[in-house]
Amino acid sequence: MSESISLRVNGIDYPVTIDQGRNLLSVIRTEVGLTGTKEGCDDCECGACMVLLDGQPINSCSYLAVQAQGREITTVEGVLQGDALHPLQRNLLEEGGVQCGFCTPGMIMSATALLQRTPAPTEEEVRIGLSGNLCRCTGYSKIVQAVQRTAAELADS
Amino acid sequence: MSFTIARTLDEALAALAAGARPIAGGTDLVVGARHGKAPLPADLVAIDRIPGLAEVTVTAAGITIGAAVSHHTLEGHPLIASTYSALADGSALVGSPATRHVGTLGGNIMNASPAMDTGAGLTVLGAEVELRAQAGSRRVTLADLWTAPGRTSARPDELCVAVHVPTPAPRSGSAYLRLEYRRAMEIAVVGAAAAVTLAPDGSVAAVRVALSAVAPTILSLGGLETLAGGSVNDVAAAVAAAASQQATPISDVRATDHYRRHTVGVMARRAVAAAARRAAGETIAIPVNRSIGIGAAS
Ligand SMILES: Cc1cc2nc3c(=O)[nH]c(=O)nc-3n(C[C@H](O)[C@H](O)[C@H](O)COP(=O)(O)OP(=O)(O)OC[C@H]3O[C@@H](n4cnc5c(N)ncnc54)[C@H](O)[C@@H]3O)c2cc1C
Ligand code: FES
Ligand code: FES
């Protein structure tokens, strides 16, 4: 049965009419129309679909969209600072932490949540923070470096 | 079909009485439905926004943990880490940061998987579960709650509202560890929790051990009373033998029964050793799995 609800994504309320079994990922991509969030496994394993719910990471492929009502959803589109890249995005590019880029939006969301709760993470803490995100290209090290460089920059600024 | 977000406990209990199923984080329920394990229930009531259900309260008898408390809260809670360590050790191993943020203690317990990571720790800590329906509430031991893989003795109209854990005796420590092939997004191959109380002379005054993923439900080791008075090393060795003997594991894609039977003894021995170190006052960081180097290095 379809239900009309409102979802708040990146600070904007979107009215959507959806089936109660729909996952948040598909609603963000096809109803809300923001396609930065990716579908990898669609099975709660790879982290490509990671978004923030009230600032905390969730696998949106395996979360019911109706359960996100009344919460703040943040997607990768929401981390841009105006037209400028977020320092994390810039550092991922500069450190070589992006190859095909498919894991990148999810990595950015997990790293954003990590840096919120742990502004100066150790390498181990970064690896644990990103442990729900798979990358088949980079070998992870450059992603970890980019997160640590971002932490250092944000601490200096 | 309906989806209700309960704002009060009464609303949630009324929905259950009318036939709805509770959903907390959905990390078992939704993922299971998407796997085709069981269809998504037609009527769902979300219990993640009920005031008080996600709180940890200190009581005269110990602590009360609301059913909607997340693994993330448990792994980082200072009192749970220091005094109820086996529970924090378990929660810290669940899935990924995302799984731990949305996944709840109530969901882990009520999903009743024999491989669950909080069950063995809660068992050795002597926890009881509070179930509530419109007619009233009752407390059950974990042994009475879990009846088979994925099955509990709770009635469909009963909500798990809290877990009560008694204050451990002085000079006690606990630990949970699991064998895993990866350090994240993993399911226990086998797991073991121990709670140890030391006598003033350093010998073991009491020990309790429970195992995960080696029986249809979490397995509480029997016959350990006779070990009281032994040294930590002797008790750990005897526990290892008892664990391998009492386990009734199956073979599946993750491991053979033979391998599980052997490794659960190793895990049980290490759990006793870690619990005894904590009982002696040593701080071993949560989760003990990382601190003693189980799981492939990153
Ligand atoms: C990628 C991934 C990795 C995981 N890794 C682990 C792991 O390492 N270790 C581990 O133990 N688990 C793991 N899990 C399983 C799961 O995350 C945990 O069991 C979690 O604690 C479930 O909580 P939940 O709130 O999401 O439960 P839900 O999915 O919301 O509910 C689970 C079941 O319990 C019922 N229920 C929920 N709350 C209550 C309540 N208060 N009263 C009565 N019934 C209730 C629901 O109706 C449902 O049947 C993993 C899951 C995923 C998707
Ligand atoms: S698409 Fe959600 S975890 Fe892979
Ligand atoms: S850059 Fe290709 S998957 Fe990570």
Task: Walk me through what this model shows.
Chain A has 157 residues and is of the alpha+beta class. Chain A folds into 2 domains: 2-76, Ubiquitin-like (UB roll), CATH 3.10.20; 87-156, [2Fe-2S]-binding domain (DNA polymerase, domain 1), CATH 1.10.150.120. Chain A has 5 helices and 5 strands; from the N terminus they run ββαβββαααα. Chain A has helices at 24-32, 87-95, 104-117, 123-129, 141-156, and strands spanning 2-9, 12-19, 50-53, 56-59, 72-74. In chain A, strand 3 (50-53) and strand 4 form a beta hairpin. In chain A, helix 2 (87-95) crosses helix 5. The radius of gyration of chain A is 15 Å and the shape is globular. The model of chain A has no long low-confidence stretch (mean pLDDT 96). Chain B is of the alpha+beta class and 298 residues long. Among the domains of chain B are: 1-45; 172-289, CO dehydrogenase flavoprotein, C-terminal domain (Enolase-like, domain 1, 2-Layer Sandwich). Chain B has helices at residues 9-17, 29-34, 71-76, 78-83, 85-91, 97-102, 105-111, 119-124, 142-145, 232-246, 257-279, 288-291, and strands at 2-5, 21-23, 43-46, 56-58, 62-66, 128-133, 136-141, 146-148, 151-152, 159-166, 172-179, 190-198, 204-212, 219-220. A 5-stranded antiparallel β-sheet of chain B has the order 4-5-10-6-7. The N and C termini of chain B lie far apart (44 Å). The chains are: A alpha+beta (157), B alpha+beta (298). The interface between A and B is medium-sized, with 33 and 29 residues.
